[in-house]
Amino acid sequence: MSVIDLTHPISADVPVYFPWHPPTSLEQTANYAEHQCVVHKLSLGTHTATHIDAPSHIFEGMGTIDQYDPGLWIQDARVVDLTPRHVRQEITVEELRARSLTPGMAVVLKTGWDVRFGDADYYATYPPLSLAGAEYLAALPIPLLAADTPFTMDVHRTMLRRGIPLVTNINNTARLRDGVVRLVAAPLLIANGDGAPARVFAVVGD
User: Which domain holds residue 77?
Assistant: First the structure.
């Protein structure tokens, strides 16, 4: 067995693509010489880098990140390799139907766009999951959806309305092959959280 880290590191350089999303800062507040230890102050938004969206991110009064059973964050997941992908090339429902996905199993969409995370045009160029594709996945149903891209607002509404969390902006997908992995996607336990940064792993057989 081996473990693949699917997480973008958090640093002060993590890009922020929307003016209403807070920037990330990492400030040292203690040092070895004066305090005999090192401590940093971390400030970041709930949807920074690799993160998970809860229904309350979009829908007022719906579920928050801390209300999920922690067992949800450990799932068998089908990796759907959709590479290579062109700029803004939608992931179609026909592509997903052709994979014979298993109802009740989480899905990981691999487009290869994680290598462009941090580019100024990342949100303008990523290949989105189509609305029809999202509706198909939600109807299977699936417990969890992960991708190495963001998701459109239509996809947010489709999945989160049904309580299906979105694991957004995963990393290192070049190391994932089409097939089944054990996905571990652990969000920070934020009270009443609309989402949370997450550490995400894939456990695979050798």
Answer: 2-11+46-204
